[in-house]
Amino acid sequence: MAAHSETNWLTEPEQRAWRAYLRGGRMLIEALDRGLAAHGLSLSEYEIISMLSEEDTRQMRMSELADLVVQSRSRLTHTATRLEKRGWVVREPCQGDRRGVLLTLTPTGAAKVEQIAPVHLDQVRAHLVDRLSAEQFATLGGAMENVMSGLDGFADSDGRAPNDRY
Amino acid sequence: MAAHSETNWLTEPEQRAWRAYLRGGRMLIEALDRGLAAHGLSLSEYEIISMLSEEDTRQMRMSELADLVVQSRSRLTHTATRLEKRGWVVREPCQGDRRGVLLTLTPTGAAKVEQIAPVHLDQVRAHLVDRLSAEQFATLGGAMENVMSGLDGFADSDGRAPNDRY
DNA sequence: CAAATAAGATTGAACTCTCAACTATTCCCA
DNA sequence: TGGGAATAGTTGAGAGTTCAATCTTATTTG
Predict the structure, then answer these.
(1) A108, A144, B15, B120: which could join B20 in a potential S-S bond, CB 3.0 to 4.6 Å?
(2) GO molecular-function annotation terms (chains A, B) (predicted)?
């Protein structure tokens, strides 16, 4: 057993796949972001109000939402403040836990989601779904679920890893 | 044929795959970014010097590099300036086209890439490659190549789409 | 060939995100 | 039950990114 730490480089096909993932992913996100920018919001802003719109109460705890959209709590705080200024969300106290804040979608915000959703969906189709076979897409989804489960709880919402508090 | 524009929502499994892609992708990038942050650089900075290190001349035109790593020219200009301050790259005039700039990896920069590459690779393996079957990973790569080719030339490096210049 | 247009890159101001520090509340347990 | 630790969220300053305008050099075309 070689005890030395020789680097196990990626194989040629692995290398290629990894590059495609990184570059293609960046291109996709950018395209979607620009698509939404034409309607006055960014992809991550859309994710936030869209997630809220799917709750039957139309509200969610800040930290829960931060985890869901993979943003730091601090970032969500700032973004929520901006969204609040635009009238799309409001903060409500969370009864039962006075530390908590419920970010709540306003009717205006809900209207915005409904207006944007079909547009955004078209772009997701055009750039992603329609470019893949059903099987490819399903495999992609499964793969990313694997990735997610491996990373679950990897870092908390403010960037400190679980084992960072020694 | 219904001429109305009713929204064709994603099917349940499509929805699930898309969400996994978005969330898993964000988690992955974030994990890799943090992994590199521990060594003093961000993922996108690493991408830049890593791409340069693979050229036999160890240099690349700004715009070509910007396209490769999917950053706007402006962003690359700023980032290159910061990398230059750290001594990892230098700008050189591009003979043959006096508009051009060749971003060039310094020996120090090359050393940094060599130092970081194995670390980064381990993280890519741990969070992505090792979590997927060979077939899943290959399919993922192929899928993202499809996405890439669909988006190729979709927007230039400063964010203006090809058909934006009317 | 001169004017117009395009391409390569930069600039600086506005905006967004990160990081560390901080307040407040709740949880744990001795 | 009280005090330490963990959780929820915010803050502000610094770092990074975007956007539109600008400058310079190449290329096109009338």
Answers:
(1) A144
(2) DNA-binding transcription factor activity
